[in-house]
Amino acid sequence: MKVLITGAAGQLGRALVQELAHRDWEVVATDLAEMDITDQDAVWASLSAQRPGLVINAAAATRVDDLEAAPDLAFAVNALGPRNLAAACRRLGSKLVHVSTDYVFDGAKPGPYVEWDETRPQSVYGLSKLLGERCVREQCPDHFIVRTAWLYGLPGPNFVNAILARGRSLSLGEDFKVVHDQRGSPTSALALAPQLLALAATEAFGTYHATCQGEATWYEFARLILARAGLEVPVRPCETWEFPRPAPRPANSVLENRMLRLEGLDLMPAWQDAFHHFWDLCGDQL
User: Fold this and answer.
1) Tell me, what's the pLDDT at 191?
2) Residues noted as catalytic
3) Is residue 286 included in any domain, yes or no?
4) Does 98 fall in a domain?
5) Which domain holds residue 52?
6) From residue 63, how far is each of 12, 56, 101, 124, 238 by CA, in Å?
7) Residue 75: its pLDDT value, please?
8) What's the total number of domains in the chain?
């Protein structure tokens, strides 16, 4: 199968290209320089020339705080871009895997979110990603919408990079606080990539959640990152209100992989195991 990947220079795109290098699939890796997904004509020209059997959309505008002041950018990349890809896939008869986010939920649910829970985005980023999901559903019947959360990989930026940078630059006696009232499932791009490909190899089209198993707070995740890096720095828990940001964060970002499990396709490891695997492979590059 020929696979076209958008956002191939990002952390998930790079993990997908790396994973596909071990398989007998032809890969077309694209990023903004090769194809602007917000340009409908450019998308059709590229896909009709390549004629991939599968498109994986890993491209997105993800700087959630900046997007509060730039909604047009958010909607162009995260909603119109997926619409353009989905329309082209429909015309070509190609499958489409579109990656979405926990930010489509408000984070108020006490337990893990399942795929059919009501969406209620609280940020421009979350709303733009929800509109992208709707565009994909409207335009392409052969689609997989896959929501993930707390994603990290190379090259970043992501939480792992941020914690390492902060830990390495900390001055003696300087306070290092990390939020302890937001919960989620840290998810390695190295673990998500094979999960996306396993799903794409089926005809089980629909909406899925795909995160590593288990849950943690940002504080708990930060402690594991610092421990693996050998950084003995004091870190203490704090609450979200101590770090006001333009875009609200869901207090609960835990997604249950219910549909993957029902399909017998849930390949995601425990979040701690996935992080140790990531560190073993990539720690010297961080």
Assistant:
1) 98
2) 125
3) no
4) yes
5) 2-281
6) 15, 21, 13, 10, 23
7) 98
8) 1
